[in-house]
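Can't paste images in this forum, so I'm doing it all in text. The chain is below; anyone willing to post the predicted structure tokens underneath?
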Amino acid sequence: MTMKKILTLFTIALTVIITSCKKPEGEGGNSTIIGKIHTTNYNSTFTVVNAVYDSPDQDVYIIYGTDATYGNKTKTGPDGVFEFKYLRKGNYKIYVYSKDKAAYLAGNLNPPDIAIYKEGEITAKKQTVDFGTIEIIK
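Text version of the structure:
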């Protein structure tokens, strides 16, 4: 085998290895997603606002890419802020649970919790993506 053929085979093998090693969304990177959860607390008939506040100790979930279920969860701090660290490039979906005011207004006196979603993308290494404020009802 000639040196040119060996070099060509090596180049092809290296290209296959490099392109097949693309890592999917998830942990293992150096980027961060941040955001805040804000709550409006209503009375039992959703006619009077009892309080409006940043949501401490609220569960926040993250879905990596096109996964069907959440990959991780965290809790907000005292100021309602959440953070997911060490993420790779890719698409992410954040969700948090909220009372379904529309279900109550449609006649359901015991409205269920529904998921409120926000989506975003990390496009670079060492990037911080702010998902903004997510409004929920309690």
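The mean pLDDT is 89. Strands lie at 27-42, 49-54, 59-64, 72-75, 81-87, 90-99, 113-122, 128-137.
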